[in-house]
Amino acid sequence: FFFFAMIAPVLLLLFLATATATVCNGGQPAFNVTNCPADHSTCCKYKWSTAEYGCCPFPNAVCCANGYTCCPSGTKCMDQGSSWSVTTTCRPDSGVDTPGKQVCKIGAQFPLSTTKKNVLVLGDSVSIGYTPYLTTELSDVAFVQHTPWSSDGGACETAYGLQCLEFFLTSPGGDTLKPDVIMFNFGLHNLITNGSGVPGQSGNTSVYASQLEQITKALVPHAPKLVFGLTSAFMCSKETDDIVIMLNTQAKAIMDKYSIPTFNMHDAIVQKCGAVPQPECLGEKECFCPHCPPGYSWLARSLPARSHTLANTRSHTLAHTRSNTLTHARSHPHAYTRSHTHT
Questions:
Q1: DSSP letter at 103?
Q2: For residue 132, what are the CA distances in angstroms to 125, 177, 297?
C-alpha cells in the first residue's frame, strides 16, 4: 500500500500528460505524426505541413476549410482571399469578430542525435534552402535539421514565429526539442511597411524588433548556444534591401543585448554578387530576390568554420570562444559580425 501511495502521483501525472496530447494522424510512424496539446491547441489539416497536420493555437478550434487558418470554438470562418494569401475573420453567433490565426507548423522531423551535437536551423525559406548543404558541411560533428518541418516560408514573419514557437520546438512525436545549438533568423517576411500583411506569410516592419526580442528570450532556455543569421540581401531592389538593412540593424542590437553571436548573410551575398541592385549572380537571374537555389550551397560553405566552432565549444569558456571568434573574423570578415558568446 505504501509503495502504491508513493507512485500514484507519478502515475497520475503520466496519465494526464498522455491524456492532454492529441495525436493528429495516429498510426503513422513516430517521425511522421503531429501532436497537439489538447488544453490549448487543436489538430487541423494544414497545406504547408509535410505531415499533413499542424496545430491550431486554440483549444477545440474550428479548422477552416481553406486549409491554412483556424478560429476559436463557437465561431465561423469568414475568409477573404484564397490559397496561401487567405485571411480569416472568426465570427461568433453574437458578439465581436476576432481575427483568425494561421495553423502552426510542427518541429523538426527526426529525433535528436545521441552521438553528435544537435543543431536546429529555425528560420525562413532561405534557411530551408541552405540547411541540406549545412547538414553536409557539419556531418562529421553535428546532426543538423530545420524547424519547422514544412515547405513554404519556414518560420515566416515574427508574429507567426512568436505564436508558433512552442510547436517549432516540439517534435512531431510531442517531445520538447533542446538541441546544442539553435541557429535562427527572422526578417525576410517582415518587409511590409504599409498594412499588417498576411498572418503566417508576411508582417509589418514596425513590430519586428519587439517580437524578435520576445522570440529571443523564449529561445534562451532551449539551447546552450544561440546564433542569429542576419537576413540575406534582396538583390533585385535597393528599396527592399534598404528595409532588410534596417531590420538587420535592429536585430544586431538585440543580439548584442543578449550576447548572441550573429553571422551576416546580407554582407556575404553583397560581397559575392556586387552592390544592390544586381540582375543576376552565380549564373542565376534574380538570384537572392529573395531565393537562389544555386547560391545555397555557397552560402552554407561560407559559414562552416563558424558553425563548427559553435557545434564544438559547448563547454568552452567565454575567453576561449572569443579567441576563436577573433581568429574566424580575421579569415572570414565578409560572413561575420563581432559579437559575444551566449551562455
A1: P
A2: 12, 19, 8
Nearest to 63 by CA among 83, 82, 77: 77
Nearest one of 76, 43, 47, 78 to 60, comparing CA atoms:
43
Residue 247's pLDDT band, with cuts at 50, 70 and 90, is very high
pLDDT of 13 above 50: no
Q: DSSP letter string over 195-238? A: S---TTT--BGGGHHHHHHHHHHHHGGG-SEEEEEEPPP-TT-H
CA 85 to chain centre: 20
Measured in degrees and rounded to the nearest 5, phi and psi for residue 313 equal -125, 35
pLDDT digits (tens, 9 = 90+) for 46-85: 988 877 899 999 999 999 999 999 999 999 999 998 888 8
How are beta strands 101-102 and 142-147 bridged, if at all? unpaired
Is the pTM above the cut of 0.85? Answer: no
Give CA separation, 154 vs 49, 83, 127, 158, in Å.
10, 17, 8, 11
Please say whether the beta carbons of 185 and 229 come within 8 A. Answer: yes
Q: What angle do CA 157, 293, 223 make, to 5 degrees?
A: 50
**Rg over CA atoms, the chain:** 21
